[in-house]
Design brief:
alpha/beta
Length: 255
Amino acid sequence: MRLTTLGTGTVALAPGRVCAGHLVEAGRVRLLLDCGSGVTHRLAEAGVDWMGITHVALTHFHPDHFGDLPTLFFAWRYGRLPGRSQPVELIGPVGTLDLLARLAHGFGEWLTAPGFPVTVREITAGDTLDLGDGVSLGSRAVPHTPESVAYSVEHGSRRVVYTGDTGGDDGLGEWAKGCDILLCECSLPAAMAMPAHLTPEGCASLAASALPRRLVLTHFYPPVLDVDIAGIVGTQYAGPVTLATDGWHIDLEDG
């Protein structure tokens, strides 16, 4: 299993960081978690076979998490000739079908009939989906927007948990307990705290509960990078901490 952090930024524009998007590769599954603005070009920069993506899973409906979805579909249709023919699955909370229809109203009906098979699977928080080739995708509601979910990707003995955007949630750590990678939003410093996002202190508390093998932080608003994130997290969590950058990756071997 490989995790690549393609977009580690937010809607706050920052050099070197595009909006949210992360790729998990396991077996023959190529799962894109969120597809915010800039992520499609990050796929190419990372050397990823972007035509080979098999699934896209959205955590919620803020544009910094889905803004490049039309661009990705357009690239699959016209970015390489002949265009894509392999099927793709679009996964997301209830409302994903309506989101796609509304995007098609603006961008054109080709978005719902792009020339390759598209299956939309709306999930209810708590559902677990079989993505094929031994890969499963679990979900859990998180406090951000009404539809927001976190995802858990499992393949063999390996598990990556992605919080998406979330505020503090006492049950999230237990749900993520013992995962190999906790890919966790770290949006704002404590001085700018808000209920819908995590601070480094909130990340520390979550990691202390979940006890992942590695904590990988993402979704940085620029001000949070001015504080000692790793030092703050280290007051509660003793494991390795990575402040992800666009294009960073890690391989997880089975066993």
